[in-house]
TrEMBL record:
GO biological process, one term: negative regulation of DNA-templated transcription
Keyword NAD in annotation: no
Function: Negatively regulates transcription of bacterial ribonucleotide reductase nrd genes and operons by binding to NrdR-boxes.
Gene assigned in the entry: nrdR
Example GO molecular function: ATP binding
Protein name: Transcriptional repressor NrdR
Family designation: Belongs to the NrdR family.
Cofactor(s) needed: Zn(2+)
Organism of provenance: Anaeromyxobacter diazotrophicus
Length: 156
């Protein structure tokens, strides 16, 4: 690690502590040349795949886009921000565990809907109506009937 003050490449670690609930290691360092101290943060690098959209475009996996969509679906519902974050983290883990460089957007969308269906059925229907782009009331009613039949027996 180069010293931000003098650029010297060698330092010593004075103190190490966990931060952000164990997700980050905070290190206090001292430059061996100028003696000034600085802080570095170490975290595991997330390797997330590219998302292949329906039209063939490729975009980096964007957690923020999923959170935004879920917040809209969960407006005025008894779903906390923590629950949304946990849901998105579970989907993110699932995508990472696939071990692929690219993943189709429908894989991400279906994973989100599966988790959301278990969390809040009304928010699930809201999200599904946008995600699946229902073209008529019949498609919407079909989804509601599948939801009413119970888990695993709907159209998802």
């Amino acid at each position: 690690m180069r010293c931000p003050w003098c650029g010297h490449p060698e330092d010593r670690v004075v103190d190490s502590r966990e931060a952000q609930e164990g997700q980050v290691t905070r290190r206090r360092r001292e430059c061996l040349a100028c003696g000034r101290r600085f802080t570095t943060y170490e975290r595991v690098e997330d390797v997330l795949p590219q998302v292949v959209k329906k039209d063939g475009r490729r975009e980096p996996f964007d957690r923020r886009k999923i959170v935004d969509g879920l917040q809209r679906a969960c407006q005025k519902r008894p779903v906390s921000r923590e629950q949304i974050d946990e849901l998105v983290s579970a989907v993110e883990r699932r995508v990472q565990e696939l071990g692929e460089r690219e993943v189709a957007s429908h894989v991400v969308g279906e994973a989100v809907m599966e988790k959301l269906r278990a969390l809040d059925p009304v928010a699930y229907v809201r999200f599904a109506s946008v995600y699946r782009a229902f073209t008529d009331v019949g498609e919407f009613m079909s989804e509601l009937e599948g939801l009413a039949r119970g888990p695993g027996r709907g159209s998802t």
